[in-house]
Design a protein that fits this description.
elongated, 3 domains, Arc Repressor Mutant, subunit A, Fic-like fold, 7 strands, mainly alpha, two-stranded antiparallel ribbon, 55% helix, 3-stranded antiparallel sheet
Length: 444
C-alpha cells in the first residue's frame, strides 16, 4: 500500500486564489460524491462540476464537511484531534446494523436452538481466530487450524500458536462483554493474544517502554514509512484516555455504539502501543465493544474474514484518515460497509440453512417413517447433538416401551441417530451433526 498524497489545504487554496470562495459557494457541493465519501487521491481523477477544476471542487467538498464534523478524544502526535462526520450512507448503515444485529430471532431461525447457537459461536470464533491471525502473517492452512482447535491439541509452530491465542482471546471477550474495560484487562487481552509468539516474551501484556525501538508501519513492498505512532512515553496516558472512551466516559456527547467500537479499532491501530499484536488487539477490542453494546449477533460473525479479503482497502482506510486532516470518516465508512457485508452474509446463510431444513422436513413427510419418527427427526434437525432415550420417546409420544424401542432403533439402523450404551443395558441416542446430509444422501 503506497503512501497517499496529502490533500490540498483550504488555506493554501484560498491564498493561491482569493476569488475561489466566490466560485464555490452556492454551487450545491455536498460532502459526498454520488453517495461516496471520496479522498482527494481519488477525487482528483474525476471530472469536476462545470466551471471548476479539481482543487476548487475539493475546496467545496471540504467546506461542506467542515460544518458537520464532530471531535474525538483521540489526538495525533501534534495534539490535533481526530474528527468524523456522519454522511447519509453511514447513517443508513448504522440504522441497518441496529436493526440486524441487536434484535431477536424467531422460533424457526436456525440459531433459535441452544445447540445450534453453541456450534455457530464456536465456528465463528474459529473463523475469526484464523483470519485475524492470517492478517498478521500466520501461514497455517484453514483446514489444519480447524483440526487443531477442534481436537484441542497443542500448536506445532508460531502460526498455530497465533491462531490458538486469538481463539482464546475471543472466548475471553465473550466472558468480558458485560464488564467495563480497564487498562489491566486490555493488557491481559494482549497477553493472551501474543503468549509465546514474541521474540521478547516479557513484551506480552505490556505497553512499549521508553528506550525500546518504537514500532513503525512500513509498506511491505516499497518499504516506504507509512505511519509513525506516538512515542512510548505518552502511551500510558493515551491508553487511559482510550479506556475512558471505551467505557463511555467523556464530555457527555453521544457517540453511536458502532462508531465507538470502530474508533477503538482505529485507535489501537494508530497508537500501536504494543511491540506486536496491535492489529489483533484492535479487532478483539472492537468485538468487546460491540458485544457490550448488546449487538449480540456479533457472536456469530467474523469481521477479519472480510478484512483479509480486502486487506489493501483496510490499510488504505487508515491512510486516508491520517492523511486528510485526521478525518476518521474514511475508516468509519469502510468499517460500516464491512460490518453490513458480514451481517448480510450471515442472514443469507441462515436463510439458506432454514430453507434446507424445511425442505428436508417436507421430503420426510412422504417417507416411510411414521409420524412419531418424523417428529423426532424434525427436532433433531434443529438440535444437532441432542440426546434421546427410549423412555423419553415413550413418555413424549405416550406409547408403549416396545413401540418406542422399535421407532428409535429403526432410525439408528438407518444411520439417522448415533447409538451409545450407557451402563449395562441402557442406550442413549444422539442427533448427528450431519443429519441433514444423511437425510439428503440416504445409505451413505
Amino acid at each position: 500500500m503506497k503512501k497517499l498524497p496529502t490533500p490540498p489545504s483550504i488555506q493554501d487554496l484560498m491564498v493561491a486564489d482569493p476569488s475561489v470562495l466566490a466560485r464555490v459557494v452556492g454551487r450545491g457541493i455536498g460532502a459526498v460524491v454520488q453517495g461516496r465519501y471520496l479522498h482527494w487521491e481519488k477525487l482528483r481523477h474525476k471530472s469536476p462540476p462545470e466551471g471548476l477544476n479539481p482543487e476548487q471542487w475539493w475546496l467545496g467538498i471540504k467546506l461542506a464537511r467542515m460544518g458537520q464534523f464532530r471531535t474525538l478524544p483521540l489526538h495525533d502526535t501534534a495534539g490535533k484531534p481526530f474528527i468524523y462526520m456522519l454522511p447519509d450512507p453511514v447513517l443508513e448503515g448504522l440504522h441497518r446494523i441496529d436493526s440486524m444485529a441487536s434484535g431477536f430471532i424467531g422460533s424457526n431461525d436456525p440459531l433459535a436452538s441452544e445447540e445450534h447457537r453453541d456450534r455457530f459461536v464456536f465456528n465463528s470464533l474459529v473463523e475469526e481466530a484464523i483470519t485475524s491471525s492470517q492478517l498478521e502473517g500466520a501461514s497455517t492452512t484453514r483446514q489444519v487450524a480447524v483440526e487443531m482447535l477442534r481436537a484441542g491439541r497443542s500448536p506445532k509452530d508460531h502460526s498455530e500458536r497465533m491462531i490458538l491465542n486469538n481463539f482464546m482471546a475471543m472466548r475471553s471477550i465473550q466472558q468480558l462483554s458485560d464488564r467495563p474495560m480497564s487498562l489491566e484487562r486490555l493488557l491481559e487481552l494482549h497477553r493472551i493474544l501474543t503468549l509465546e509468539t514474541l521474540d521478547d516474551p516479557t513484551a506480552a501484556g505490556r505497553l512499549q517502554r521508553e528506550g525500546e525501538h518504537r514500532v513503525q508501519v512500513f509498506d511491505t513492498h516499497t518499504h516506504d514509512l507509512l505511519h509513525t505512532p506516538p512515542p512510548a512515553s505518552v502511551l500510558p496516558e493515551r491508553m487511559a484516555q482510550l479506556v475512558a472512551f471505551a467505557n463511555g466516559q467523556g464530555d457527555g456527547t453521544f457517540v453511536h455504539p458502532v462508531i465507538r467500537a470502530i474508533v477503538l479499532h482505529f485507535w489501537i491501530g494508530h497508537d500501536h502501543p504494543f511491540i506486536d499484536g496491535n492489529g489483533r488487539t484492535a479487532r478483539a477490542l472492537f468485538y468487546w465493544s460491540m458485544l457490550r453494546s448488546r449487538y449480540w449477533l456479533f457472536s456469530f460473525i467474523s469481521i477479519s474474514k472480510l478484512l483479509k479479503k480486502g486487506s489493501d482497502r483496510y490499510k488504505r482506510a487508515y491512510l486516508e484518515s491520517e492523511s486528510d486532516d485526521n478525518d476518521l470518516t474514511y475508516f468509519i465508512v469502510h468499517q460500516v460497509e464491512t460490518i453490513l457485508t458480514a451481517l448480510e452474509e450471515l442472514q443469507g446463510y441462515l436463510a439458506q440453512k432454514g430453507a434446507e431444513v424445511r425442505a428436508v422436513e417436507a421430503r420426510l413427510r412422504t417417507s416411510r417413517y411414521n409420524h412419531r419418527q418424523l417428529a423426532l427427526l424434525g427436532h433433531a434437525l434443529r438440535h444437532p447433538g441432542q440426546r434421546y432415550t427410549l423412555r423419553g420417546h415413550q413418555t413424549s409420544q405416550g406409547i408403549a416401551y416396545a413401540t418406542a424401542r422399535s421407532d428409535i432403533f429403526a432410525l439408528a439402523e438407518d444411520g439417522l441417530l448415533e447409538q451409545r450404551r450407557v451402563g449395562g443395558k441402557t442406550f442413549e441416542f444422539f442427533a448427528p451433526d450431519n443429519l441433514q446430509k444423511r437425510l439428503d444422501q440416504p445409505g451413505e
